[in-house]
Write a structure and sequence with these properties.
mainly alpha, Tetracycline Repressor, domain 2
Length: 184
């Protein structure tokens, strides 16, 4: 891999999360470089995927380790998780979507282990009575992922202020979309 210019990994992860089948030319356009420039950064799509895989996996695993998903009050840990992952949502979403859609065995195996950690976290929240139990922990991970994506898209397209994104994710995830009347 060339070191002439830093590879815009977050932007490439976002582009691949949004369009997993994008060509190298489409990816170059999505991150604002020419196809030739992208090919100088990485020689092939496989090299790009491998580079993104390592970068995204390391970033997510590091976040999960720093947060310590299995200790502390689950709602507080969830807020920390949102705070950690929102700025890196493109990497998280790349792992979430790309691992299963393109059959990269090592990525699928590594991400499956990290996803299992998230499922276990949501299951712990259910067991402790903090999270609802009428839907599976697997589904809660999917909803969490969808909200991260929605917030990332909304901030990127300026429909949601960056400063409000974490609150919006937590509010919808924890309280839903129903308007609650003020307590008397």
């Amino acid at each position: 891999m060339s070191t002439e210019r830093p590879i815009p990994l977050h932007a490439l992860a976002r582009a691949l999360a949004q369009r997993p089948g994008a060509s190298m030319e489409q990816l170059a356009q999505a991150v604002g470089v020419s196809r030739a420039t992208l090919h100088r950064m990485v020689s092939s799509r496989d090299e790009l995927i491998n580079t993104l895989e390592r970068f995204a996996y390391d970033a997510c695993a590091r976040s999960f380790n720093e947060i310590n998903l299995q200790s502390g009050p689950t709602v507080e840990v969830l807020r920390k998780l949102i705070h950690e992952l929102h700025p890196n949502s493109a990497l998280f979403l790349f792992l979430q979507r790309h691992a299963y859609s393109h059959g990269y065995d090592r990525l699928t195996q590594n991400w499956s282990q990290q996803r299992a950690r998230l499922v276990q976290f949501f299951r712990r929240g259910q067991d402790e009575g903090a999270f609802r139990v009428d839907v599976s922990a697997q589904w809660l991970v999917d909803v969490f992922s969808a909200l991260l994506q929605a917030a990332a898209d909304a901030t990127h397209e300026q429909r949601l202020a960056q400063a409000d994104a974490e609150h919006a994710i937590a509010a919808v995830l924890l309280d839903g979309i129903l308007r609650h009347p003020p307590s008397a």
